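Objective 1b of the project was to move from sequence-level analysis to a structural picture of ligand recognition. The entry below was assembled by the postdoctoral researcher (A.K.) and checked by the PI before modelling. It contains the amino acid sequence of the target and the SMILES of the bound compound, zinc ion.
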Amino acid sequence: VSDLDLIYELDIIYNEITIKEKELERLNNRLEINKTEEEKKRYIIELDNLNNLLNDKHSILRKKENELKDYKYKLNNLKDSYEKTNVKDTKQYEYFISSINNLENRIDLLESEILELMISEDKISNNIIRVKEKIKEISDEIVNLYDANYANVEILKKEIEALQKEVLEIRKKITISKLSEYEKIKYRKKRAVAEVKDKACTSCGMILPTSYIDFLKKSDDIIVCENCGSILYINKE
Ligand SMILES: [Zn+2]
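Corresponding predicted holo structure:
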């Protein structure tokens, strides 16, 4: 195994570490968990609003029920006094009838209003149950996300650790002068090594002359692409 083979391998591993470190950062920022927590907050606000609405409807309902009791009591009194009174003239008779009618109409109206309020209370209660279920569902999901996140963070940390050990092993095998040449280039570029495939630099795509490729195949020196500055690597097998 030549220095160039090792440098090529080293560059790939450094790149894998970078990818895994980015993923680790993403997991540490808990983007998905934060999104789900926000969703839960929205449902909790919705639940609050529904509870307030239900309380409002309920106090209106109570008021109407008291009014209804009141009117029924008045109606009974009126009917009693009508029965007890010996009604003689038409005016008095009309007074009773119209008062009774009036009260009965109000009672009818109140009863239908109360029914509507009860139906609407039922609907709100059902919505409250639905939203509570949703909140429970999301809370479970958040617990699972935390567990999965934790597990993935641990896996990634171990993978990065293993790759860093590999890096140390490979570096030991590389001639120091070549390693420092590699590091100078690596300092400037994300990917320092580009494989030559189909007679082209895979980093920038520049086509290399055949004579140059033959030269590369024989050389053990670090040679960079004239166009992009990547170390050119050619598989000699
Ligand atoms: Zn290039």
